[in-house]
Amino acid sequence: MTDIPFDAVPERLSSEPSYLEEHTITSWLFTKDHKRIGILFATSITFFFFIGGAAATLMRLELVTPYANFLSPDEYNRLFTLHGIVMVWFFLIPSIPTVMGNFLIPMMIGARDVAFPRLNILSWWVFTIGASFTVYSLIAGGVDTGWTFYTPFSTMFSNSHVFAAAAGVFITGFSTIATGVNFITTIHTGRTEGMTWFRLPLFVWAIYAVSVVMVLATPVLASALLMIMCERMLHLPIFNPDTGGDPLLFQHIFWFYSHPAVYIMVLPAMGVVSEIIACFARRTIFGYRFMVYAMIGIAAIGFFVWGHHMFVAGQSNYASLVFSFLSFIVAVPSAIKVFNWTASLYRGRITFEAPMLYALGFVGLFTIGGLTGLFVAMIPIDVHVTDTYFVIAHFHYIMVGGSVSAFFGGLHYWWPKATGRLYHEGAARLAAIMMFFGFNFTFFPQFIMGYAGMPRRYEIYPPVFQIWHVLSSAGASVLAVAYFMPLFYLGWSLFYGERSPPNPWRATGLEWKTPSPPPKENFLVPPRVEHGPYFYHAEQDPGDLTEIDTGR
Amino acid sequence: MNQLFPFPPEASLESRGVDMLYFAMVGVSFLIIVIVFGLIVIFAWRYRAGSAALRTRLPAFFSREVEIGWTLATLLAFLGIFAWAAGARQVHFAPPENALNIRVVAKQWMWKFEHPSGAREIDALHLPMGVPVRLNMTSQDVIHSFYVPAFREKQDVLPDRIVTLWFTPTELGTFPIRCAEYCGTDHSLMDGEVVVVTPAEYARWSERNGDRGLPASGAQRFAALGCAACHAARSGIAPRLAGLFGSRVRLEGNRTVVADDAYLERSILDPRADIAKGYLPVMPSYRGVASSEDVSALIAYIKSLRAGGKP
Amino acid sequence: MSGASFITKESWSDPEQEFRASFGMWVFLSTELLFFGGLFLAYAELRSQNYEAFAEAGKHASFFYGTLNTFILMTSSFAIAIAVGAQERTDIKLVRFALVATLVFGFGFLIVKGLEYHEDIEEHLIPGAEFPSGMPAAQMFFALYWVMTGLHALHLTVGLGVVGRVWLIARRAELPENFHRTLEVSALYWHLIDVIWVMLYPIFYLVGRST
Ligand code: HEA
Ligand code: HEA
Ligand code: CUA
Ligand SMILES: [Cu+2]
Q1: Residue B209, exposed/middle/buried by CB under 10 A (0-12, 13-18, 19+)?
Q2: pLDDT digits (tens, 9 = 90+) for A261-310
Q3: Which of A83, B95, B294, C77 is in Cβ range 3.0-4.6 Å of A55 for a Cys bridge?
Q4: Do A116 and C20 touch (CB under 8 A)?
Q5: Which protein residue has the closest C-alpha to ligand 1 atom 18?
Q6: Is residue C193 within a helix (H) or strand (E), and if so which, with residue range?
Q7: What is the pTM of this model?
Q8: Distance from the C5 Cα atom to the nearest Cα atom in chain A, whole angstroms
Q9: How large is the ipTM?
Q10: Is residue C14 packed enough to be buried (19+ CB in 10 Å), middle (13-18) or exposed (0-12)?
Q11: What are the pLDDT digits (tens) for B9-30?
């Protein structure tokens, strides 16, 4: 019979012991199994997400009134710094790559494990220790520089624990780099027979692009942090204006890292969403190759737009023009992706399980966030709205509305595969819908007050903005509830959820060709791949095995 | 500005263009969103599982055409938007002639303003309506950002650098100033207000608060600070300052600049920034030596020197 | 499915594994380069703005020690290259010898660096109150000097550990079959350390000479 992708797993595999068999603590903490390491990362970043969320909650509470209520200005400044640092470096950047990347990449390319399993578990240890250290210093001591560490404030004026925080972020950088090196090598050398580059699922491509950015961008941040640490600890003047230091130098180095970093935060989300949409639209991704080129384009051009964070910082007008121009260019591939996702629904057979709801939510919110990205890429508008809540809203739309939704989408999509259990569909859909509305409720008001001139990093603000802040805070509480829900119904499913079949969504892709949960080595023997991904049309006309590789 | 939508008034020449650009862009985005969301909803309904809709596969060439089509379309749209925005900014590149020059000193957490007349104020800035204003700003500690929402203008103020910002107020009234770059504990309280009055009123105001003797006191400080030592009538070491103001100065590296207020201030605070042609860079920096009052006075003095005058 | 596509190859090929280590190392080297890249960028930017000061400060950097170390490190790199070559010709004696040479030169570099640092400290070339040069910007030159050379010395120390380990393995009676891979990867890293130094040398030890 023909090899249509969603039929049963061979008995030989089903009888294998699952990767969850062993229960000792050490079997987890010192495992080399990429699947277990993925789970370990999941627990760490979930923890950090709630820390960052708690900070956000406190901030939103404080911002209900224009005055300082229960937080002193210094405490508030420490809070948004903690929030920014934790959410960016300890939650969103590692989120999809280290959790789903680790769990899925080897399975998706038909490998036994990642290229360097030992390096992989080391990466988790480094991450968890470094991040915990930072979070401790952020909570116990406190840092008030904002996540951007601008000099000379951070080097000469802030009398908070900048050194500790910088050191912690510096250390976790090693983890990011290790993960990146590991994935690049894995994808280059681990692909099973027949898994050609253009048969890779888009998720693999996304992780590949992201890994390259991680490997090339993270060290630059490291050097910037190192210089800050040296200046603070050893009093070596590097950014010090009194000795002729350039006050903008740090900003250039920081954004040279941090703009690529924002694509580290969105590319994996794009990968996840592509998988989900293809599966629940029962159709191949429209323009697969263009999706690939788009991701590569984003990763590459993303390195040359950092100056758009510095339009009013004092860089030359001409530099600003160039960076503005490149920001528009880098937006084109994103546009292509949005259009392709939409077109992938065309002539599909669409169902709306929770993962699909999250994915559609991503497309919508990413579009809004991206479009407002174009606003701030226009110099005259940015001059007015930079460092206001307009920017805050811009990036929360993409990072929270977009990337975090995609993370939850992927979590639900691969949950049965990872745990072997099914969750309560109704609860999941409810949470997805609440997140969507709670989110817009929280952040849309911020566009309005942003354009009205409400600066960011303000605890005490002009009373005219109060109603918008109140709305935002109200929304945030809805959001908080929505984010708590999965904790409960997913936790419940772990113990009482009914057992999942190997392929509950009847999805294509090698990860679905093993039992749920998968056996230790994923496959007994390396599978052979005979066609491109997203083979869903074979459902309708079996025997149609032509490559669905549009756009050639 | 109304309570529900607290949009600041358009109180400067520049603000109009910014708002137009903004609301045009809101329109474009709205269009995009309607299209994208619209299609998603339509497809989601039409192609929901079990609906009786045509689902045969698309010919391969089709998708390629489409891809290239909308890639180019988007590219063009973006280039158009960029060109518009860039054009709108371009007009703002060249500093206005005969602008009113005001020195701004930012420090945690206050704004100090010094008018040409010598009038000084803190956290308040009086400006004449309809006159182009040029702020020569510097910070004494961290980076701050001078932001007047009503003018749609913002500029970071850097330590040990002189950055300039120019605009033309077009409305009478008082408009809030805010610090937009995070600068520590009281960042959110580092505000002030611009008071735009008629030119006549402004003249009277600066008359009242300025001091006539500024150039004179500048002359004294010029001696006291030892400038005279080098800039004395015909000591070959340093260029003559008489008639310098407003003239074109040739600098090392064959650049030329117009010696305006900002240039004078820079020459005093960091002389190395631009070296007058034919002279050695021996002039010491007076940053930290000359108080901000000194600098204002010196500038006033140098401006008062007509060509052929003493130093 | 009747396992159609499952019964093809019996197990994962291990030539893959061979190739992986050096591939991974190459990727890692790109990281290292960009890490120093950030610092080089800082140097370039600050020098462009404080030209005289940097030239003046460069005169204080010890040309002699710098040059000596450049030779030492180059030689060590050459030595490890020999080790790799000898390994291909399975001349294990020469491998061991070349590795020892590498280690010796490596330590030599550190010793010379130590002497140099000592001299610098004697001359108070540490940014701060009693820094000799009148030009404040000269202090930035030395700030970067300490950070970058220090960081390089740190890398070299790690490198010594790596090469030392290879040497210990090389001394065994019979070598593990993946030995050549271990050697190649370590050699790659050692070369990187050399390359970085070759970039540091001109910007710290020659700027003073150029003017
Ligand atoms: C995941 C994170 C992420 C992503 C993907 C982006 C994507 C983009 N960002 Fe954003 N950005 C941030 C996170 C992100 N950003 C953060 C965290 C900050 C603030 C940091 C700080 O200061 O703390 C920031 C700040 C920021 C600034 C500086 C604002 C300021 O501080 O003054 C700018 C300016 O140009 C900018 C631009 C853009 C652009 C042009 C894109 C583009 O890539 C967007 C492309 C997407 C689209 C354009 C939408 C889809 C397109 C279509 C549907 C096509 C149809 C449209 C038309 C034909 C018009 N961003
Ligand atoms: C990628 C990451 C990310 C994520 C997911 C979020 C999530 C959220 N952010 Fe964050 N945000 C940033 C990245 C992110 N943010 C960054 C980089 C900045 C800039 C920082 C800076 O200026 O330096 C910022 C700044 C920022 C500000 C501006 C602060 C200021 O400038 O003054 C605000 C204000 O509303 C805000 C709100 C929120 C809210 C309501 C959420 C919500 O989505 C959070 C929802 C989650 C929860 C609510 C978790 C539930 C847990 C609890 C409720 C715990 C309850 C326990 C107690 C309260 C003890 N964020
Ligand atoms: Cu000054 Cu913020
Ligand atoms: Cu950016």
Answers
A1: middle
A2: 999 999 999 999 999 999 999 888 888 889 999 999 999 999 999 999 99
A3: A83
A4: yes
A5: A395
A6: helix C179-201
A7: 0.91
A8: 5
A9: 0.89
A10: exposed
A11: 999 988 888 999 999 999 999 9
